[in-house]
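Hi U.,

Before I forget, here's the chain from the pilot set. I'm dumping it here mostly so it's searchable later in email.
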Amino acid sequence: MIVSASNITKYYGSFRALHDFHVEIPEQSIFGLLGPNGAGKSTFIRILNQIIFSDEGSIHIEGEPLAPKHIARIGYLPEERGLYKKMQVGEQLLFLAQLKGLSKSEASRRIREWLTKFELMPWINKKVEDLSKGMQQKVQFIATVVHQPMLIILDEPFSGFDPVNAELIKDEILQLRSQGATVLFSTHRMESVDEICDHMVMINKSEKVLEGKIDEVKKRFKKNTYQFRFRGECPNDLHIVSEEKAENGYRDLLIKLGEGETVNEFLTRMLPIGDVGGIQEHIPTINSIFIQAVKEDLRITQIQNHHA
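Structure:
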């Protein structure tokens, strides 16, 4: 594990921001850190970045206690961006890269590579304030990853991006993982979690409520429901969750099978009474799981990978 956190507790005065928080983040993974506003996500990120310190608990990086030396190996993109508006783009990136330990020549080479990739080279000598919000976000992303950190912490990385540039950043995140980096990814955009995360942990009201591999979490929340395309009269006992009209007289039904009923048994009784256009198991999205977990205020439902 690249990050192992145990018993993390943090108070701000009488307000409990995190309580007995445990998490393990595998190497070379994209790990989703989820939760509603005020759940404790940003508190954990700040502790991991040594901006603040926990009241209780410990964090280990690759088996070593978290220490100032690890800062140089972490890249952090905060939700509240922090570029110096009056500095030139190239000058600012060079300054930030050297703070992370790169030589001037190596930093310059990498900065030009990234600016070229993001089509920002014509803006290298422009002040940050002259750039659009989306372009500033790209510059901030470059500052986060230019020193090739082993752990990249992204807090709402798609904020301010149009769909095209959001896709560009997503592709870069996947590429960074393939090159060996681990990405801790905090976002409210649940579709992004579905698309790129391998693992996730969900925090609600300062406590962990759900953790596991994305596919295993989805299996845990399956409800024996199926997307079913059908043309004909449905039996009265068919449990229809929702339905929409489809082409050629078909209906797209979200149905829930009876207790112990298999798909084959269901089709055996439906085929003689109508036309079946298709059936597919309904897998819940991370967004629907997120809403359910927060509404029900689930306590620890930990899904472990026994093969790890």
